[in-house]
Design a protein that fits this description.
The chain is α+β, with helices and mostly antiparallel strands. It is built from 9 helices and 10 strands. Strands 2, 5, 6, 7, 8, 9 and 10 form a 7-stranded mixed sheet that branches. Strands 1-4-3 form a 3-stranded antiparallel sheet, with no helix packed on it. The termini are far apart. 28% of the residues are buried.
Length: 295
């Protein structure tokens, strides 16, 4: 069984072929951009969702579902490079960076959780999938992930780079399923999201991670009150900046414009796209827990 379900991308544009021939690795084709989203309605949606269900919905959950919609609208963005050729993934995966404390050293560490097929899930289903994975990661209960972390913790420095690249080569270039070696299947998904807003940051550009083969990374900034012009009048709105890094061999401005449009539609008009609030059911036990956490 292969690591990923793939099919070759057909009918490449002349630019795409030139881009593939220009950049040989993911170290040099980075393109950066950012967009400000008016998430005033999003924060209202989150507040109503929490009041109705008692569950701690966050911007991160909504972005995961939005990412699924983005990939549905622009499937070419859901691609990887193998042997200098583009292959379109048949499944969407969203990788989230998760901050955690190393139980042995006490140092702050970064790990991750991947949710597959977010476009097929309701918000509640996505929350269940995402939150359960994050919980396992932070508690060290993900056996394959812990096995990988322990391996790299014990490796000499000079072996880390070649082993990471070997794993990338075997898992993506050769498309081998490496679960028998302790490497999770499709560990990084289609795109990566990191919430820098939780660190009090508004903007940052995340570097491409060559061995992950991910062509798109999003850094989600802090939500801030800002004065903006709405219908010719100055108003105070809640604004969140999304900073993107993408691989120019895979994506260009045309892809970015479509993805930005879809993201703006979903995140600025949540009541039109996410689960209807009236259709949600309350979960008293979780409401009590959420209230105890200050949700």
């Amino acid at each position: 069984m292969p690591n990923l379900q793939l099919e070759p991308k057909q009918n490449l544009s002349s630019f795409r072929k030139i881009a593939l021939g220009t950049w040989k690795t993911a170290y040099d084709p980075s393109v950066y951009g950012s967009m400000d989203l008016d998430v005033t309605e999003t924060m209202e949606y989150i507040e109503q969702f929490r009041a109705k269900t008692g569950r701690k919905l966050t911007v991160t959950h909504l972005l995961a579902r939005t990412a699924g919609a983005v990939m549905e609208e622009m499937p070419d963005a859901n691609s990887i490079l193998r042997w200098g050729r583009l292959y379109v993934r048949k499944q969407v995966g969203v990788f989230f960076q998760v901050a955690m404390e190393d139980p042995e050293t006490g140092e702050i560490d970064l790990s991750g959780a991947t949710v597959h097929d977010p476009e097929k899930m309701s918000i509640v289903e996505l929350m269940d999938a995402f939150d359960s994975q994050v919980k396992k990661v932070r508690k060290g209960e993900d056996e394959k992930l812990e096995s990988s972390r322990n391996l790299f913790r014990s490796l000499p420095w000079f072996l880390v780079w070649p082993i990471l690249n070997l794993i990338g080569f075997l898992g993506y270039t050769l498309n081998l399923d490496l679960r028998l070696l302790g490497v999770p299947k499709d560990a990084f998904g289609s795109l990566m999201i990191t919430n820098i807003g939780s660190l009090g940051l508004s903007e940052a550009y995340v570097p491409l991670v060559p061995y992950s083969r991910i062509p798109l990374l999003l850094a989600v900034g802090e939500v801030k009150d800002r004065a903006v012009v709405v219908d010719g009048e100055i108003a105070i709105r809640k604004i969140m900046r999304i900073s993107a890094t993408f691989d120019h061999r895979v994506l260009d401005g045309m892809h970015a414009s479509v993805m930005a449009r879809v993201m703006r539609q979903w995140m600025e008009h949540p009541f039109e796209h996410f689960d209807p609030i009236d259709d949600l059911s309350a979960e008293p036990a979780q409401l009590e827990a959420a209230e105890g956490e200050g949700a």
